[in-house]
Amino acid sequence: MNRRNREAAPPGRLHIIGGSLRGSRLAVPALPGLRPTPQRLRQTLFDWLAPVIAGANVLDAFAGSGALGIEALSRGAHTATFFERDRAQATAIEADLARLRLAAGKVHCVDSLQVLAALASERFDIVLLDPPFDLGLWEPAAMLLDANGWLAPRAHVYVETGDADTWNAPARWRVHRQREAGAVRGTVFRVGTT
By residue range, what is the domain housing residue 76? Predict the structure, then answer.
C-alpha cells in the first residue's frame, strides 16, 4: 500500500476531538473513496477556526463521514448542513446526529455540484470542502460556491487535497492558513478580504 492509500484508509471509528461532544465516537463504514480527515489535521483546522466557529452556519459540502460538520457543531457552530451523495453514508450521518442529539444538523442526500450550481438558498460562514481526491472537484465546487451566493461576507473555506494536487481558487479567496499531514494538505481560505 502506498503512502497515499495508507492515509486514505478509513479507521473504522473516529472520535470528536473538541467541544461539548469531545470523545464522542462516529462510525466510519468502509466505502470506496471515503477518507476521513486525519485527526491531527482536524485538530489544526479547528484551532484555526476557533475565533469564528461560535454561532457560524457551516456547510460540509462533501460530508463523507460527517466528522468535520459534527466537529463544528461540537465547537459551537449554530447550524451544520451536510451534502452527501451516498445514501448509506447520508443515513449514517443522520444516525450520528440523532444519537448525539444534534438538531442543528441537517443532511441532504444530493450531488453537491448539482446543488451548488443553483443559486444559494442560504449563505454559510464556514464551508468545508473535502471531495473525493480522485474526482478533482475542488475547482468546480469552489467556483460554484463563489459565483452562486453560497458564501457569507468574509466566509472561511477549508479545502482538503492531496499534497501533490493542484487547482485554482477563485480570485477573491486568500490563503489564510495551510498545513500538510502525511499525504494530505489542508488550506483555509478567507473570502472577500484583501
Answer: 3-191
